[in-house]
């Protein structure tokens, strides 16, 4: 297991001359000598108190995702629910009660920029809850829109106008407010992606022209699947990624507009269904291939990161757009053989630092964006003082060296982590708690529910 040792350059020098002595001062704050104690720009400290599973009414949480709305979403598999909490640790209710009792055991989740929550249960389907629509309320269904075609005002179905690339006229929508059962169902969880659906088997066709828009995949539709991780793609791509552990695939699932709704605030939003666009990574043992995957995330630039237990490398990165392997086997620490005992989960901070949760090593390994190892986080730290002496020019020099020792005894069977607003959250399942770590210079005591 990797341990990090930081050797301080702080020396206490005792120089003896006959019957007199002198003391050399330790480096002060203005010195360019790094003491190694308080000048670590990536120093993480543990936030107190820990959040106990009992206080949060959690049973067996398997995944945690931080959303742009300032909420943490936790997939609690054994309880068949998704728990939503604030950064203060307060449990959300009301709107989120629809997630409190699900007909499946959620194991992984993510949220896109449109506040659509996606989740799966290690089975062959992906589900969605449109939080924005549920929170705002649906006034009606847009059944037709007015377009200017060849100088003439023409009513078309919204999907037809979208397929033709037309721009609807202002205040020209026909709104049906009588479909209350349908509107109510649109605010609850539903199936987003079903590989065996007619559309995913046979393809998507333009209903007006009969032209094939997107081919289906009847072969994959018949295969057994196990989706174990989800991650959002860049907002402009209208897609999410899914990790299929049985077939060793990373899927790009595109969002196909299905229904246009008018919200209570007067805004129109599309509701989507999922369709397989492509496999961005497939089975293999080299860089950028998949072998017994466990977890996945994306960064602000749209790059994909995933962890796995198969041969040979535990952590991979795929560049956005090209999906080429971005870590080098020969050069990058993160790709070294034996670097991880069990890379259970991965998260990337906005500044590009990578955090890998190692369940067996019981730590979180921190890397630069290029894969260079930085340090272990979520470990207990102690400074050890080591003394030694030697003669220099017939004078006795006594040297005290400070050494940072790390002990991986804080975590027990940790399952997942996420990074949000300079805070690292860890599901420490063996100890039935959530641990939080933050940078020393980013500690905020007041207003823990800030929404920036």
List strands and helices in order, with pairings.
Blueprint: E1 14-17, E2 20-23, E3 44-46, E4 51-52, H1 53-56, E5 61-66, E6 72-76, E7 81-85, E8 108-111, E9 116-120, E10 126-130, H2 131-136, E11 138-149, E12 152-156, H3 158-163, E13 168-176, H4 180-185, E14 190-193, H5 198-202, E15 204-205, E16 212-214, H6 218-221, E17 227-232, E18 239-244, E19 249-263, E20 268-281, E21 293-298, E22 304-308, E23 315-318, E24 343-348, E25 354-358, E26 363-367, E27 373-377, E28 380-392, E29 395-407, E30 416-420, E31 423-428, E32 433-439
Antiparallel strand pairs: 1-2, 3-32, 4-32, 5-6, 6-7, 8-9, 9-10, 10-14, 11-12, 11-13, 11-19, 15-16, 17-18, 18-19, 19-20, 21-22, 22-23, 24-25, 25-26, 26-27, 28-29, 30-31, 31-32
Walk me through the structure.
This protein has 452 residues and is mostly beta strands. 7% of the residues lie in helices and 44% in strands. It is built from six helices and 32 strands. It has helices at residues 53-56, 131-136, 158-163, 180-185, 198-202, 218-221; strands at 14-17, 20-23, 44-46, 51-52, 61-66, 72-76, 81-85, 108-111, 116-120, 126-130, 138-149, 152-156, 168-176, 190-193, 204-205, 212-214, 227-232, 239-244, 249-263, 268-281, 293-298, 304-308, 315-318, 343-348, 354-358, 363-367, 373-377, 380-392, 395-407, 416-420, 423-428, 433-439. The strands form nine sheets. Strands 11, 12, 13, 17, 18, 19 and 20 form a seven-stranded antiparallel β-sheet that branches. The protein is elongated and about 100 Å long. Residues 1-36 have low confidence and may be disordered.
């Amino acid at each position: 297991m990797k341990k990090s040792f930081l050797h301080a350059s702080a020396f206490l020098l005792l120089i003896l001359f006959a019957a007199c002595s002198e003391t050399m001062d330790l480096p002060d704050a203005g010195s360019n000598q790094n003491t190694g104690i308080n000048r670590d720009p990536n120093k993480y400290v543990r936030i107190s108190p820990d959040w106990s599973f009992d206080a949060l009414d959690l049973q067996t949480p398997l995944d945690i995702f931080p959303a742009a709305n300032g909420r943490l979403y936790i997939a609690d598999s054994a309880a068949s629910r998704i728990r939503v909490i604030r950064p203060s640790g307060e449990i959300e209710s009301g709107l989120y009660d629809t997630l409190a009792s699900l007909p499946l055991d959620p194991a992984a989740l993510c949220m896109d920029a449109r506040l659509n929550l996606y989740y799966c249960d290690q089975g062959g389907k992906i589900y969605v809850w449109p939080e924005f629509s549920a929170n705002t309320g649906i006034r009606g269904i847009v059944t037709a829109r007015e377009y200017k075609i060849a100088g003439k005002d023409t009513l078309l179905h919204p999907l037809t106008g979208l397929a033709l690339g037309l721009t609807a006229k202002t205040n020209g929508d026909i709104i049906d407010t009588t479909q209350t059962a349908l509107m109510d169902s649109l605010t609850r969880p539903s199936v987003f992606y079903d590989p065996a659906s007619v559309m995913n088997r046979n393809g998507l066709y333009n209903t007006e022209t009969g032209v094939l828009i997107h081919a289906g995949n009847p072969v994959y539709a018949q295969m057994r699947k196990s989706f174990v991780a989800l991650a959002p793609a860049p907002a402009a791509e209208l897609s999410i990624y899914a990790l299929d552990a049985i077939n060793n695939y990373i899927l790009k699932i595109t969002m196909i507009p299905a229904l246009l709704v008018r919200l209570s605030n007067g805004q129109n939003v599309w509701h989507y269904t999922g369709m397989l666009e492509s496999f961005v990574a497939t089975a293999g043992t080299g860089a950028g291939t998949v072998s017994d995957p466990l977890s996945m995330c994306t960064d602000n630039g749209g790059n994909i990161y995933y962890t796995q237990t198969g041969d040979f490398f535990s952590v991979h990165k795929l560049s956005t757009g090209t999906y080429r392997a971005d870590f080098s086997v020969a050069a990058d620490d993160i790709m070294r053989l034996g670097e991880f005992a069990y890379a259970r989960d991965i998260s990337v901070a906005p500044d590009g630092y990578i955090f890998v949760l190692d369940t067996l090593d019981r730590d979180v390994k921190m890397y630069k964006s290029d894969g260079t190892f930085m340090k272990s986080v979520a470990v207990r730290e102690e400074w050890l003082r080591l003394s030694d002496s030697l003669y220099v020019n017939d004078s006795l020099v006594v040297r005290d060296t400070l050494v940072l020792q790390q002990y991986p005894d804080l975590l027990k069977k940790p399952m997942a982590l996420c990074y949000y607003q300079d805070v690292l959250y860890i599901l420490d399942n063996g100890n039935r708690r959530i641990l939080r770590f933050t940078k020393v210079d980013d500690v905020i005591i007041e207003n823990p529910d800030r929404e920036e």
